[in-house]
Write a structure and sequence with these properties.
Distance between the termini: 57 Å
Radius of gyration: 21 Å
Number of helices: 5
Number of strands: 2
Bound molecules: heme C
Order of helices and strands: HHHHEEH
Shape: elongated
C-alpha cells in the first residue's frame, strides 16, 4: 500500500514536470501563425519540405518570397495551385520543380492560399 502511493505520487510529479517543460517550450517558441502551422503540416504530408521551407531558401524558393512576389496578382492563386501539381522551372532560376501528382486538387488549392496568406514575422 505504501509503495503504491509512492509510485502514483511520482508519476503525478513526472506528468506535472512534463507538462511544465511543454508549457515552457510553448512560451519560448517564436509565435507561429496558425496558417503557418497548417501549411507546415501539409508541406510535410505532401513531401514539399524536401525542397521548400517557409522562411528559408532551400532547393526551391522560400514561401515568404513566393507570397511577396505575387502580392496583388489576382491570378496567382490559380497559377500557384496549378504549378504545385505540374511543377516547372524558369521563374526562380534554373532549378526544376518536378510534377507532384500525389497532391490532391483540394490540397494544392489550400496550399496556394496558405502560401499567399503568409506574412513574414518581423
Ligand atoms: C524536388 C524539389 C521540389 C519539390 C519536392 C517541391 N518543389 Fe516547389 N519548387 C521547386 C523549385 C526548384 C521551384 C522553382 C521553380 C521555378 O523557378 O519555376 C519551386 C517553386 C515552387 C513554387 C513557386 C512557383 C512559381 O511559379 O513562382 C511554389 C508555390 C511551390 N514550389 C510549391 C511547392 C509545393 C506546395 C510542394 C509540395 C507539394 C513543392 N513545391 C514541392 C522545387 C520543389
Amino acid at each position: 500500500m505504501k509503495n503504491l502511493s509512492i509510485s502514483s505520487h511520482s508519476s503525478f510529479l513526472l506528468r506535472y514536470f512534463g507538462m511544465s517543460v511543454f508549457a515552457a517550450l510553448l512560451f519560448c517558441a517564436k509565435p507561429v501563425y496558425a496558417e503557418n502551422e497548417q501549411l507546415t503540416k501539409l508541406m510535410l504530408t505532401n513531401n514539399c519540405l524536401a525542397c521548400h521551407q517557409i522562411d528559408k531558401r532551400k532547393y526551391g524558393p522560400q514561401f515568404y518570397e513566393v507570397a511577396e512576389k505575387y502580392q496583388g496578382d489576382s491570378s496567382a492563386l490559380e497559377k500557384l495551385a496549378a504549378k504545385i501539381k505540374v511543377g516547372g522551372t524558369g521563374v526562380w532560376g534554373e532549378d526544376i520543380m518536378p510534377p507532384q501528382p500525389h497532391v490532391s486538387d483540394a490540397n494544392a488549392k489550400i496550399m496556394a492560399e496558405l502560401i499567399m496568406a503568409l506574412k513574414p514575422a518581423k
